[in-house]
Every structure is written in structure tokens, then in C-alpha cells.
Amino acid sequence: MYLDELRTLLDRHARPDWTTDIDGVLISRVDSEDPPAPSTSGTVLAVIAQGAKHLALGDRVYEYGAGQYLVASVDLPVTGHFIGASAQHPALGFGLTLEPSAIAELLLLAGPGDVPRAGGQGGALPAIAVSDAPGDLLDAVVRLLRLLDEPRDRAVLAPLVTREVLWRVMTGEQGALVRQLGLADSSLSHVARAVRWIREHYTQPFRVEDVARLSGMSVSAFHRNFQAVTALSPIQFQKQIRLQEARLLLAVHPHDIAQVGYRVGYDSPSQFSREYRRQFGAPPSEDATRLSRSVRAPATVLP
């Protein structure tokens, strides 16, 4: 039913850069099963129509396949790979960027009782979750993608159907996770503030107490919520960002390993090499040679 048409639409409109003519909508088509590779999750809804993907965040592992959707509420360093993708049976996926302002607007429009109430004073939810996609969500996604074939209607109808897709997710099984994105004072928003700061200052050493204060939480609450959302400690998160940035730089500058280590914040070349090998399974020199021969896929959780 919905999945058959979804596969057809995704296959027809897939582009090499994964963009579409609808703002915030991505389409992926992957023709091979590559080794696990680091990327960033983005804040995204990803629906798979064909194939499957294995995704790791810290010590958490997610696998999602045809008829399932994944929600990522914070842009996090992840490692993933497609399972069983081939030219004859490519992985096909739909993605929608989750904008906090759009979610907040829908929360304001919702009537009393339209949105499930959050229970208790629990901390932040994990930033990534997987569920089976219900029919009403798949129906809305299919109708949104049909507009790629209707240029006259797209400008008017695409924003409306996009809001419906968001609403279906916000009121679905993972709705609590998505709704946190639209709440300015949620635990998730505090952690996201810290994540942005660490990303912007990843080369610099920091005190956890200072980042906790910046995020608006006590040190104990910050540790607890940051770990819950990201599956990493703040220092581990910084290390992941440093190493991913180093890998991107090495793809362009494969013979400048020591300088790359310094640029991402390492004072010790030996420590950089040791942690790089532990993360990627090969020393920087070897991995840089391999990277310079390959073309990286877009950084996203989408398959």
C-alpha cells in the first residue's frame, strides 16, 4: 500500500545530494552496503521505505528498516551503515528536518487534551528513538512527496502537509521526544544548548561546571540529562566531535596528520593517534590514505 507508492516516489525523485524541491525534505537512495562510517544525526525524522540501517550512538545501537521511522532530536555524532543495500535493491528513505519553531507553533495551536501530557518530573529522553510507522504518518509522507510531481500546487500545499507530518509524529509513539524540541525550557533544550556550545568550541578545554551553568542546570542534573540524551559524557562528546572533524580534515590533507591533530584540539600527537585508532580502527596515516580515495556520503541518519 503506502510503502509501495513511497518506494516509487523516493526512487523517482532521489538526487545525488539528497535534496528536493520541498524545504526540509530529503530523499536518500543508497546502492551499496558500506562499512560503518561516522556522521552526524541532525534533528530529523527519517522514514525507511526499503532496506535497513544500523546506527550507533555511544553504547546505544539502533536498527530500523522498511516501515519504520527514526526520530533524532539533537545533532549528535553517530556511526552507521546500510544493511543489504545493492544496485538491484537500494535503500530508500525519506527525511524531514525537525524545526523547533514549527513544533512550538503546532503546540500553541493544539487544543486542551489534543497533545498527551508529559508525565512526572522525569529527566530528558534519549535523543534518538525508533518506532513502527503508523498508516496515518505514511499516508501524509506519501501525499507530501506526490507534490514533487505537482509544481503548481507545491508552494501552497507542501507547508500544510509538512505540518501534518509533524503533527502525526508529535502525537505518535515518539511524540514526547519530538515535543521537547518545541519547549523552550525542556530538559532537551538545556542539553541542546550545551551540545551547541561544545560543537562551537570543541577545540578548547572546558570545565563541566561552566557548561552546566551555561545550559541552565546544576552539575548533577546536567550530567544526568546529558548522558540520557546523548549516551555520552560531555568530555566523551567533545572527543567524538574532535575525531570526526579530524577525519574530515584528513580526507583533504592526508599528509598533514600532526597539524590536523593540533587543529582539532590535541596537544599530543601520540594521544591523537591513539584515540583516532581506537575510534576508527586504523591509525590516522592509514585511514587518511583510504579517505583520500573515497567519496563521503552526506552526513545524516537517513538511509
UniProtKB/TrEMBL annotation:
Residues 281-303 are annotated as: Disordered. PROSITE patterns: HTH_ARAC_FAMILY_1, HTH_ARAC_FAMILY_2. InterPro entries: Homeodomain-like_sf, HTH_AraC, HTH_AraC-typ_CS, Tscrpt_reg_AraC-type_HTH, Tscrpt_reg_HTH_AraC_N. It comes from the Bacteria. Coiled coil: none annotated. Keywords: DNA-binding, Transcription, Transcription regulation. Residues 192-290 form the HTH araC/xylS-type domain. Pfam families: AraC_N, HTH_18. Gene3D superfamilies: Homeodomain-like. This is AraC family transcriptional regulator. It comes from Streptomyces goshikiensis.
